[in-house]
Structure formats: C-alpha cells, structure tokens
Design a protein that fits this description.
- By secondary structure, the protein is of the alpha+beta class.
- It has three domains: 78 residues, Uridine Diphospho-n-acetylenolpyruvylglucosamine Reductase, domain 2, CATH 3.30.43.10; 114 residues, Uridine Diphospho-n-acetylenolpyruvylglucosamine Reductase, domain 3; 228 residues, Vanillyl-alcohol Oxidase, Chain A, domain 3, CATH 3.40.462.
- The protein contains 14 helices and 18 strands.
- The strands form four sheets. A seven-stranded antiparallel β-sheet has the order 15-12-14-13-17-18-16, with helices on both faces. The protein has a five-stranded antiparallel β-sheet with strand order 5-6-10-8-9.
- A hairpin with a 5-residue loop joins strand 8 and strand 9.
- The longest helix has 22 residues.
- The chain is globular.
- The protein starts with a strand and ends in a 15-residue tail after the last helix.
C-alpha cells in the first residue's frame, strides 16, 4: 500500500492540502486499498507506540484535522484509494468506499438510472467525512441531508476489529457517526446509502440585486427571506452577499416543464423586481455542475468527470465560520446586517444563507446532529488565492485585510445562532469564553463521550475537535 514519511520524495504531495490554514506535518501518511490493509495499519501503529491516528476521507477540514491538526503528531490513514462505487438501481442504494468523492458518486448514480444522493456544496470531498457532518447542499429543502441517507457502514475500530453498524447492529456507534463529524470512533471503510430519483425537470436560478444602501438591503433581504420560507419545497434557495450584490441563487427540483414554469412565474411575481433574473433549465447533473463548480468561490474543475481531491494546485488562505439559525431573521437583525453588508469588500468575501426545511429529516434523537428544525444554515468565508497574490507571504498579508470584517459579521450573527456546523470546523468557536464542544455537539456530548470510551478507550483517533474521553 502507498505510504510516505518525512524526507520521502512523495511526502510533500501526500500531505498537500488546498487550504494554507490546514497545513500540518504528520508522522506518516498511509493510503490503504482494502479493509484488511486498514486493519494492518492500526495493528502496526499500535505495535510501534503510535498515539494518534487521523483519518483523511473528506479532505476539507478547515483546521487540518484530517492530517492530525497543526499541533498533532499523527499517522494519517488516507482513504483516497478506497473509492469503489456499486449502484443498485432496483433498491435505489449505493455502496461506496470511504474515500469516494461525492461528485464521482453523483455522476455514476445519475448515469445508472437517473438517481441522486443529496450532498453538500463541495462535491470534490470524500463521502466518509461529509456524511458524518450533515451534507447540506443545493437540493436540501427538497431531499434532506446526506447524513439521513446512511443505511449502514463498515468500520475498523481502534482495536483492529471490523464491525458493520446500522440500526440493529452497534446502534450506538451508528447513532454517533451520524453527526459527530470528526472521525472520533474508527475508520469508515464502506458505506451504503439510500438514493432517490433525481428531479426530471430541474433548473438553476440566479437573481441579483445591487448592494447599494442599507434601506434597499433591508427591504430586499426581507422579501427574499419571506419568499424562501413559504415557497414550495421544490425551491432550494441560498441567499448570498458577495461581489457587490445581494443574490438569491439555487436549484428548482421540479418534475415537469409545466411545474417549473409555474414556479418561475411565482418567483417573478413575488420576488423583488430586478433586471438580473436568470433561469437555466438543465438536467440534474448540469445543475450540480453549475452550482458545485461554476458559481462557487472555488470553480477549479471543468466538469464533473474531472474532479479529484484538491491538493496545492490552487493553494489559498481560506477561513470559514458557520452556524445554524433556529428562527427566521428578525427586523432588528436584518437592519444590523444591512449596515455591515454595505461595507463588505467587493472581492474574496462571502456570506451565504442556505435555506432548509425545518420540518424535514429524522427526529432529533435519531442521530448525533445537534441542530434540527432550522430554517437557515449560515456560512461566511474569505479566500485569497496564492496565484492571485503572487506568493505565499503576500497571500497571508492580504488575508489579514478581511479578517476583521468577517469577525464583525460573525458577531452580528452569533446571538441568533444555535451552534456551529461541524462540517466547517473553526477553532475560533472557542474564543470570547465560548464552549467549542457545546457549540458543535451540545446536548449529545455526554452520550458521545460514553460511546467514545467504549469503542476507543485509548483515544487513538483524536485531534483538537474530536470527542474527548472525559
């Protein structure tokens, strides 16, 4: 199996990550190709006295947890080679390796029967990581979140044993991995997920309003929120503040041309008038290509067949903050946000609000996800590319220009949030005397600790945000 150690010619590539802030120097990186090889890695690590294993599957930890963290000393189990995909069209399920990129699954599921899996926005991320966090994406109001689609998983535990977890076998561990989001309990080598038919007549929409003054922001934002909360569930919105605009974009999960046309007519009637009203009918894969690759802050792949885990080809300094909004935004909040939004720099900064269906999904007690029943998931980020800055030092220096604006924006949101999103990990959630573990795990933390102690009593799988033993 491929393995790399400090000093090897392959080590720089094996530890490469797209985010400057997530860079770390682990003890070694090993890329197994089978469950048996995962077992062998754990056995050898224990015999060698290794005290920290990190699991790299999703590849998008903003704090570098999948490399052990910046202050870690981990042997990394990189799941990138375990990426087999098997689609069962009759049962509408997929069984995939723990390192399978969600975009690759997306293509195969659609090609083999017009099926889909709800995924997060980042489609070049490994499913074994994303499914433990939530997987909130462009069709979330219609089809729910990725975590709720997990039917069973094969895992290798800290003692090297292999278990299959589902509702009936190791149900406590099955509960824990659906929402704890940090690779705390073992290595997920295989997953079986429930698929559904992709929408037959979908479309993307992009509706833009100039970001000019606070008064117009308040009236427009209020109208966008009102429509989003009351629209049919086929309407999947994201409100975005960036590039000098207040924008609402997303996907329509409609089944016929007539249904799509009626929803578009309703949008035109009820949303504020604007000259920039763009509707793009397409098949499901094209809607995901545009939303996942074209209209994001990182459009680096030409199409869905060319995605791969990012390394350093587009190194950037990116800081993200995210949190769940349990109630519709108040007028007081919208006014405060408006006054700050009109000062937003015109590049490299983004605030987004992903519309959710508060009534969808599994019951709150069914998984370890802390936040259910929320109408919005907020995310904000700034990102500076090294290729734009010219060199690393300049990239870091330019990034400092955006840090204060982001912190101020987050403090406007914070009183209205019910906790952070573990899929966008952020150590700064512990600033200002706040409890980072309460933010991410909340009422589930005692139960998660008990399960951690049961399955990994030596805390072999750990990093700064993993479930603690005590």
């Amino acid at each position: 199996m491929p393995m790399s150690f400090p000093g090897d010619s392959s080590f720089d590539e094996a530890t490469a990550t797209w985010n400057y802030l997530a860079q770390a120097q682990p003890v070694a990186v090993v890329a197994p190709r089978s469950t048996a090889e995962v077992q062998e890695i754990i056995r050898c690590a224990r015999e060698a006295g290794v005290t920290q294993l990190a699991i790299r599957s999703g590849g998008h930890s903003f704090e570098g947890a999948s490399l052990g963290g910046r202050d870690g000393h981990a042997v990394v189990i990189d799941m990138v080679e375990m990426n087999d995909i098997a689609i069962d069209g009759d049962q509408q399920t997929a069984t995939v390796g723990g390192g399978t990129l969600t975009g690759n699954l997306m293509v195969q599921a659609f090609d083999q029967g017009g099926l889909m899996l709800p995924t997060g926005e980042c489609i070049a991320v490994g499913i074994g990581g994303q499914i433990q966090c939530g997987g909130y994406g462009h069709y979330v109001r219609t089809y729910g979140i990725q975590t709720d689609r997990l039917l069973r998983a094969e895992m290798v535990l800290a003692d090297g044993s292999v278990v299959v977890v589902d509702e009936n076998t190791h149900p406590d561990l099955f509960w824990a991995i659906r929402g704890s989001g940090t690779g705390s309990f073992g290595v997920i080598t295989s997953l079986t997920v429930e698929l559904n038919k992709a929408p037959a007549a979908p479309a993307n929409f992009f509706i833009k309003y100039p970001l000019t003054d606070a008064a117009s922001f308040v009236s427009t934002f209020t109208a966008l929120q009102d429509y989003s909360l009351n629209a049919p569930l086929a309407f999947n919105p994201m409100i975005v503040i960036w590039r000098g605009h207040l924008e609402i974009l997303g996907s329509l999960a409609t089944e016929t041309d007539a249904e799509r046309d009626a929803l578009v007519a309703d949008m035109r009637e009820k949303l504020p008038a604007t000259e920039e009203f763009d509707i793009r009918p397409a098949d499901y894969l094209e809607t995901m290509r545009v939303q996942g690759l074209e209209d994001t802050s990182a459009p680096y792949y030409p199409d869905l067949t060319d995605i791969r885990r990012e390394r350093r080809e587009h190194l950037r300094y990116m800081k993200i903050k995210a949190g769940f909004v349990p109630e519709p935004f108040t007028g007081e909040f919208i006014q405060a946000l408006a006054e700050h939004a009109i000062t937003q720099p015109r590049e490299n900064l983004r605030i987004q609000l992903l519309g959710l269906d508060p009534n969808s999904g599994l019951p709150a007690e069914a998984t370890a996800i802390k936040n259910r029943g929320c109408p919005w998931l907020m995310g904000m980020s700034y990102s500076v590319l090294r290729e734009d800055a010219g060199d690393t030092a300049t990239m870091v220096e330019l990034s400092e220009n955006y840090e204060q604006w982001q912190h101020q924006a987050y403090e406007i949101f914070y009183p209205y949030l019910s906790g952070g999103y573990i899929g966008d990990d952020d150590y700064e959630e512990a600033d200002h005397g706040r409890d980072m573990f309460d933010s991410y795990y909340g009422q589930h933390l005692p139960q998660l600790k008990a399960i951690k102690s049961k399955y990994d009593p030596d805390n072999l799988f750990h990093h700064k945000l993993s479930i603690p033993i005590d």
